[in-house]
Design brief:
about 100 residues; mainly beta; four-stranded antiparallel beta sheet
Length: about 100
């Protein structure tokens, strides 16, 4: 977690980042250094991580597959604690107020 309460960390397989945000807040989500995990089963190869942004009480806000670095803008609809989850690999995730 960053000093300002947002996220700036490497997340991997089921590890979560947590932050608080107010309704109406506009945030920039940056996903970099994407490292997709090698599949145990050669029949099931993935070329992307799974990225999820959840409201702690209400569930998923944003879910997407990410194979290359990308930046997204998100407007928070409900105040409270939010979670960031990465599965199928690792990525550096930064969430901060939009400029």
């Amino acid at each position: 977690m960053k000093d300002d309460g947002y996220v700036d960390e490497t997340l991997q397989d089921e590890q979560t980042g947590e932050f608080s945000a107010e309704a109406g807040e506009e945030l920039t989500v940056s996903i970099e250094n994407v490292d997709v995990a090698e599949a145990d089963d050669e029949q099931v190869q993935s070329d992307a991580i799974s990225f999820r942004l959840d409201h702690a009480d209400d569930g998923p806000i944003l879910t997407r597959s990410v194979s290359e670095p990308e930046t997204l803008d998100v407007t928070i609809e409900k105040s409270g604690t939010h979670l960031v989850i990465v599965t199928n690999g690792a990525a550096d995730v930064t969430i901060e107020p939009s400029e």
